[in-house]
Amino acid sequence: MAFGAPSFNKGTVSSVVLVTYIIVLFLVFWEDVLPDVPKDQGGLSISDAYLDLHHLTQRPHPYNSHANDIVREYILTKVHSIADKYPHVQVTDDLRSNGSWASPGYGVYFEGTNVLIKIDGTELNYRKKGGVLFSAHYDSVSTAPGTTDDGMGVTTLLQLVEYFAKHRVERTAIFNINNGEEDWLNGAHAFLQHPWSRIPDSFLNLEGASSGGRPILFRATSAAVLRAFTTRHVPRPHANVLSADAFKRGAIRSGTDYSVYTEGADMQGIDLAFYKGRSKYHTKYDAIPYTDGHEKSLWAMMEAARGAGTALLNDSSTHDPDRYVPAVYFDLFASRLVLFPLNSLYIFNILFLILGPIFLLALLFVQAVIKAAHKRRSGEHHPMHVRSMLTRIFTDLRLIWRWSKFWVGIIITLGVQALLVLIFVKANPYIIYSSPYIVLFCLTTASFVTLTWTISFDLPPSSHDDPAESSPENQTQIIFFQSYFLSWIFLLLSTIAIGKAEVGGLYLVTFWGIGLWLACALQSIETIFSVKHLPTAFVPSRSSSRSSSRSSSEPRPHHEEPSETTPLNQDHEHTGYTENGNGHRGRSGGRKSEDADTIDWWLLQFIFVVPAPVIMAAHIGNMLLDATCQTLADGNSKAVVYASASLIGFLLVLPLAPFSFRIHRGIGSILVFLFVIFGLWALLSFPFDANAPLKIYFQQTVQLEGAVASSSLLPSTSGVSAALGPTVRNVVTSLYGVPEYLNSDIIPTLPSAQGKRTTCYNSRLKLGLVECDWSSGEAMIPQPGAVSMIAPVNETLTSIPLDTHFFRAEFLRTSPTTARATIKGKNTRNCRLYFDNQPVISYAVHGGLHGMQYPYTVHEPGLKELRLWSREWDRTFVVDVEWRDHMGLGESLTGRVACEWAEYASASAGVPGEGEDPKKGGFRSAKVPALEELISFLPTWVVVSKSADGLVEAWEHFEV
Fold it and tell me: CA angle at residue 757 from 752 to 762, to 5 degrees?
């Protein structure tokens, strides 16, 4: 055995495979565990931060709630107490920034209530430009206290304010603790209206879309800012470019302030967020008692933010001119961040695609020349034997199978994977929601068994076989080169994806291809040296063509001269065959002889081919499953989620293909046994529980009559007097959820739905989900709440009863193509205009800034919806809108006017003030009986979330 190499037998190879996978998977999952909070926290205080978190997340506090004001006051008190101690710290309670901006679907008018802090850097050059922005939002959704989304982000920023105030840095730090992110990133837009927004050129945004765990750097603009997240600055980096690719392709149905800072302010920056446990996201379980990791999770974000933030503020390399270069990045075992420019990967792939095959073909050519020379010399000493036609056919069939079984194995494996995905999707599609790693185990096991067993299967040997061609070593070489060819195809496709769409998450293909290329080169070199040093009589004389084939099926006398079979008896372990008593060869369990002058590099080949891609696939699989398995409740495709898990299972096994001949079948048998057990469990188990609850979405709509003045849509025979106020015509409760459970298992548990006609259909608002509507009944009519009686907007009518006055609106035609809307809601900050018959091309809100925020102008062909947000309660919105008159006939504008409410009694418990005087903080909370009913009667395996900005939307038609 050359160089003391381990034996290439089933026992050794199987042991190496088992040890490798056990170590890799153990390290991947072990490093995913949150470490303990250190005693020396380096200037941060986890106890203070955790106390702040308790104050900030006592109850839901959306922008349109009174609890939101309480949270804001707490933050202001906290940062003012810090600023009072340091003259280089300034605090701004931004109650002036407002503006208008639009997306392709809707327009927004918003009045900000951000809390801004500026810490002057020591370098004067960075006081006006070149600073760093730190951002998190303090509002939550209406159905969640917001511990991870984004209470932990805010408490981290509060810690960083004090830290950077004490430990001054070179660049100026701007903190935007903003309000209104949950309502489509409005707080970040409002920040762009403030003069301080022009100071920073980079940012660190803190977010959450889960229930805790390790935060991940899931988006970054460039290679430069990513240098702030290297191990030198962040001790335990967790990052992967694949998540950024998913955002870019629209696979992730959410957004963060990152997009506003990059698109609206041309900043470079980083998105750091929690991502595990999405079933608790935007629900009552996004609360401190249910957080995964508790203080450990908060500390993980604090430590990463401090390290990255300090680097951005002090390290000029994070602001260099190359900061616009996209990058590939991923972490290894949370101990090192691998980072390199995407363009470098692209150039390397192109060169490797060209030069890699050329070098291997050169080696194969040398190998073929040496083999041919030895065969010619050997053939001079041995007579040719003619085989029968039938013998040649069977020999050729075996040869064809040996060259094709790798591809047959790939096809069978993919087919079995597709069948398993289909079985899961049809039989128990949501089991991956709560048991993703059981599903991954089943898919990986199926890949392992089908691929390795197919490749290791061989047709029965014959005495006419060339032992060199049928040996495991030769077949291993064939599989190596076929695997390399497959990786070359994948590499070509990934290079095209990089060039066309800047997809960086395909780096695994490159590393797998490099490993296979090295293994193939070693295999060729090993074969060259093996053939070169064999004695002439040792080399089989059978050539690859049938014309030069020889047969040794006839018995030889004992005194026969050395022939093709003679060296097999003398050194049978080298060829893998022995000679039986009849002179025929059979398969041997031995391996290369200790005396054979060959080089055995299989272990080095294994190291090149298996560990790196398995490690990368395991990291990606761990992140991918945790991030996507519970998005099924959001309407994501079941097939896509299961196919992603199937792909990970396949990639975990594919590198083993060249070593399949030496993997003991007992491993596969054990895995098949476990597959049956876990597979049956996965198919028969109920997929949801209190730890992984099914998420459904709630909204209630109230149709009014008499709330809109000057509307031709009001029936003249309705008998409604404007002086008596509006009446409620209909109240509809809507739930959105997965079709398998919503109407059959969830709605029947609600008393208000008993005996009601429920209409269910595919939702247009939440794609992939079903919407079920029913008339709620008088007992479920919501109440807007109020601090006092509110007079109508024209100030001439009598007071409107509190139980029906959700809002008042008037419309006035000001020209053939313009109109003015006046809207006043009760106990709300949010109203809307929907335009049904035609879009508007411009709008302006009185009291707001003129014009649209660049580059968020009104798109063609216009807007079908306008969202109005005020920092004041009970504000009167006066809005001018313009539309096109295509026919020149003075077309009218029709649509709906609405106001929103996001409070309900149980979520407002503990909010001070039940009086009538708003100057003393008194108010009456809104009431949503239908939501309270849901919270009380839903099964323990179901949890409710908000469907839109408002839990309740009251509306009425208008025409002007």
Answer: 105
